[in-house]
Amino acid sequence: MPNHVHGVVTLIDSYRGTACRAPIIEQFGKPTVGSIPTVIRSYKSAVKKWCNENGFKHFQWQRNYYEYIVRGEKDLDKIRDYIIFNSGKWGEDRNNPKNFSK
Q1: What's the CA angle centered on 2, arms 77 and 9, to 5 degrees?
Q2: Which residue has the higher pLDDT, 46 or 37?
């Protein structure tokens, strides 16, 4: 889809333990290494920087993101299928400029 991104992020135990959803209370407001918000923020920042350097200065990310915890191989297969086949639905998407006059 040209207007959004889908992906699967695999979290691996590190020296700090399992990646966490949010910072520890004592560190509220500070980035926590390995946390999902920090990973997403870093990704968005790197893509925006690349866009700025390559002539896409008007590129903007949406303010937030959606996350879902995969709970097994069947769940992962279902998500992979959704990601693969979702791009084929762009022609019907309400955000596709070609559909504005419909």
Answers
A1: 35
A2: 46
